[in-house]
Amino acid sequence: MSVESIVLVVGDEELLVERAIGEVVASVRGEDPEAEVIDLAPGGLEPGRISELTSPSLFGGGKVLVVRAVQDLGKDLSAEVLQYAKNPADDVVLVAVHHGGAKGKALVDGLAKLKPRKISCPKITKAGERIDFVRAEIRRAGGKISADGARGLLDAVGNDLRELAAACSQLVADTGGKIDDAAVARYYRGRAEVSGFTVADKAIEGQLAEALEQLRWALATGVAPVLIVSALAQGVRGLAKVGGAPRGARGAALAKDLGMPPWKIERVQRQLRGWSGDGVARALTAVAEADEAVKGGAADPAYALEKTVAQIVASRG
After folding, report:
1. How far is residue 20 from each of residues 25, 121, 129, 180, measured CA to CA in Å?
2. For the chain, counts of helices (H) and of strands (E)
3. Starting from the edge strand earliest in sequence, which strands make up the sheet with 117-120, in order?
4. Which residues contact 74 (CB under 8 A, 6 or more apart)?
5. Which residues partner with 10 through β-bridges?
6. What is the pLDDT of residue 191?
7. Distance between CA atoms of 91 and 285, rounded to whole angstroms?
8. In this predicted model, what pLDDT tens digit does every residue of 301-313 receive, in sequence order?
C-alpha cells in the first residue's frame, strides 16, 4: 500500500480526528476498494487480539485497523501494539489514536521513534484559531471568505466545529464561493443564532422562559415549525438513547452503538441529570403530538409549539 503502515493521530478535537481517520481510510480504499476497516476501543481489546487481526487472511485483501484511545490501553496491550508497529504487515494500516497529554505517553514516544505518519488534531480553543479554521473550511469547499465574514459566521453559528464546518459548506453552495460579512448576515444571522436545536436545548435543560423566547424569535425569523419539532424530537430521542445505554458503556464503543458522535453523547449525558425514564417518555409523547399538530392537526402551530415546549420542561424530574 502507498499509505504509511503506521499512522499516529494525536489530539482531542473530535471533528479533526474523525477527518484524519476518514482520509486514511479513503486513501487505502482508493487502491483497494475492498479493504476492511476495523474500529477498536480499549474496552473491546484483549491480549493477542492485535496479532490476530493483523495476521494474513486466507482471502487476502487489505485492512485499516483503527485503535482508539490508546492512552487507555494497559501495559500488555501497549507492548503488543508497539511490537507489531516495529514489523507491520504489508497489507495492514494501523491507525493509533491518542488524545494527547501525559497518559499513555510511553506508547506514543515508542511509536514516534519508528517515524510513523503523524497527524495532530489539537483542541481549537482560541478565537483566532477558530477564525483560521473557518477560512480554511471555506477554502476546502472551494470558496473564499473575508476576515470580517469569518468573524461574523462565528458570531452567528457559535464555536462548535461540526456546526461551523456545515455552515461553511452551505455558504459556499449558497453564494458561489465569494463570501463577505454581508453574505454571512444575509444567510445566517438570526436563523443561525436561533435554530430549532437552540430551542430544544433550552427546553430539555428546563429553561422555560429562555426556550419560549428562543422559539418566538426562531418563528419570527422564518424557521419552519416542522424543523423546530424535528429538533425537539431529536433532542428527546437523544435522551432516550443515551439514558437507555448499558451501564459502563463509554467512549468510541458507546458512540458506535448509539450512532452518535462522542461530543454529542457527552452533552446529552449532562442534560440527562435532570431527567427520569418516565419524564423522557412523557416528553416523547408531547413531541409526537406536536408533530401531528404542525402538520395540519392544529389551527395555530405556534401555540402548539409553545405548549409542547412547556410540556417538555414540565416532564423533567
Report:
1. 9, 8, 18, 29
2. 15, 7
3. 36-40, 63-67, 92-98, 6-10, 117-120
4. 42
5. 98, 120
6. 45
7. 51
8. 999 999 999 999 9
Measure the CA–CA gap between 64 and 66, rounded to whole angstroms.
6
Cell 443515551 belongs to which residue?
A: 242
* H/E element, 164: helix 161-175
Which three-class secondary structure state does DSSP give residue 10?
Answer: strand
- Mean pLDDT across 60-81: 91
Cβ neighbours of residue 184 closer than 8 Å, sequence gap 6 or more? 149, 152, 153, 156, 171
Mean pLDDT of 82-99: 94
224 φ/ψ angles, rounded to the nearest 5 degrees = -70, 140
Amino acid at 45: L
* Angle, vertex CA 120, rays to CA 116 and CA 126, nearest 5: 170
Evaluate whether 1 touches 62 at the Cβ level (below 8 Å): yes
Quote the CA–CA distance of 209 and 217 in Å, as a whole number.
12
Measured CA to CA, the distance from residue 220 to residue 22 in angstroms comes to 39
Q: Is the pLDDT of residue 113 over 90?
A: yes
Cell of 275: 431527567
Write the CB contacts of 87 (distance below 8 Å, at least 6 apart in sequence): none
Q: What is 26-53 written as a DSSP string?
A: HHHHHH-TT-EEEEE-GGG--TTHHHHH
**DSSP SS3 for 242:** helix
